[in-house]
Design goal:
Blueprint: H1 7-19, E1 27-32, E2 35-42, H2 45-56, E3 63-70, H3 93-96
């Protein structure tokens, strides 16, 4: 009987595998006792099923709970399958000094 893989190793493999797939950048992953829970947005039903099948095939995954939403772009302001971000250019304004939460006006 093969040894059970740690949740950390499984999670690393899931994230790496999803990162290699272009339509799953908005997928959040949680792993507990080999059970993987997926949440977030994907652009199509086909992508939702593709992500689930990909994750189910990873060594050590004992089950997949697919809570992915299909975002066709009608429910958000972003591109199809892409969440709207408050910092689309990736800048961290707090580190850049633009936001100072310690001052009273």
């Amino acid at each position: 009987m093969a040894a059970q893989r740690s949740d950390t190793l499984i999670g690393d493999d899931v994230v790496r595998s999803l990162g290699q797939q272009g339509q799953s950048s908005q997928v959040l992953v949680q792993v507990k006792d080999g059970q993987v829970t997926l949440s977030g947005d994907v652009p199509s039903t086909a992508a939702k099923h593709q992500v689930e099948q990909l994750v189910a095939g990873i060594d050590g995954v004992r089950g997949v709970h697919n809570h992915l939403n299909v975002d066709t772009g009608t429910r958000s302001f972003g591109e199809r399958g892409q969440a709207v971000r408050d910092n689309p250019d990736g800048r961290d304004d707090a580190q850049m000094g633009d936001i100072d939460l310690g001052k009273d006006g």
